Amino acid sequence: MKNRYRLHNKHLNIKGFTLGELLITVAIIAVLVAVSIPIFASSLDRARAAADMANVRSAKAAAAAEYLSDQPGDSVTYYYDAVNGKVTTDRTKAAAFEGFGRSDKAVKGASGIPKKDGKAQIVAVTYDADGSISAAWGMGTELDSMIDNALANIASKGDKYYSGSDLINSVGTLPVATSELFGSANVYQAGDTLYWRPYQFTVNGKKHVFLYASNGSSGTANWQGYAIYYNGKTYKSKNLMSNGTVDRNSVMVSNVGSDLETYLLGTGKWE
Fold first, then answer.
1. CA distance 67 to 126
2. Domain spans of the chain?
3. What's the pLDDT tens digit per position in 10-27?
4. pLDDT tens digits, residue range 176-203?
């Protein structure tokens, strides 16, 4: 009986962790978690970007196959459905496609953001007659609708809504991050945000509209910009200042005239 009492008492006297030891253990675990979370998040970001870039490559391949098969002879924009790996030129049909963009940052191979404002985007691929191919996340709905609205205003209001403040004020502007256009904010005196603004020009008596990216959102802002959006494609200025930033004077929209294609492709200022 005495021995059993001693054995029981011996177990009761086993020493546990002190409060200080527990706090140290918790602190070590917290440090390990704090270190591992960014690593995990970075790995997840890379995985998402890799998936997005793979889809962009698939979209371009599908568009090229379709274009070479049909040989339409002019510029065509295809919308990629990642569910079945096929493309369509029908925007109404494409609007119902399931979004597959995963990254909330720009990735190589296509302009724009794969997952913008929490919404997964699809890829639109433009194949030109000269064999060049470009891709952009989203359907360009906002920009194309803005051009359509500008043309509708011109048709309904006549010459009042030409290529000045009236047109901009009637249609509005759309913000675009400089990083979204150029991959960084490395542009001359623009800040972090540019604004797509409409501009009208006339070819053979027919009125057309393109958008240009300016650092002002009002109708009275400078008639200068950094990029042009036209016919489903974005043209970025490659004129640089001595300090390496993009020159805002590259887009002198008041001097475009009627031959926009020559202005964009024949001056060596755009890409």
1. 10
2. 47-137, 141-265
3. 555 556 667 777 788 888
4. 777 777 776 677 777 778 888 888 877 7
The number of residues making up the chain comes to: 271
Residue type, 75: S
Q: Select the more confidently predicted residue: 207 or 79.
A: 79
Residue 5 confidence (pLDDT) above 60? no
3-state secondary structure the chain: CHHHHHHHHHHHCCCCCCHHHHHHHHHHHHHHHHHHHHHHHHHHHHHHHHHHHHHHHHHHHHHHHHHHHHCCCCCEEEEEECCCCEEECCHHHHCCCCCCCCCCCCCCCCECCCEECCEECCEEEEECCCCCEEEEECCCHHHHHHHHHHHHHHHHHHHHCCCCHHHHHHHCCEEEEHHHHHCCCCECCCCCEEEEEEEEEEECCEEEEEEEEECCCCCCCCCEECEEEECCEEEEECCECCCCCECHHHEEHHHCCCCHHHHHHCCCCEC
Q: Give the list of residues 6+ apart from residue 208 with CB closer than 8 angstroms, or none.
A: 151, 200, 201, 202, 260
Q: Which of 199, 119, 192, 212 is nearest to 154 (CA)?
A: 199
- Confidence band, pLDDT 50/70/90 cuts, at residue 40: low
How many percent of the chain have pLDDT more than 70?
76
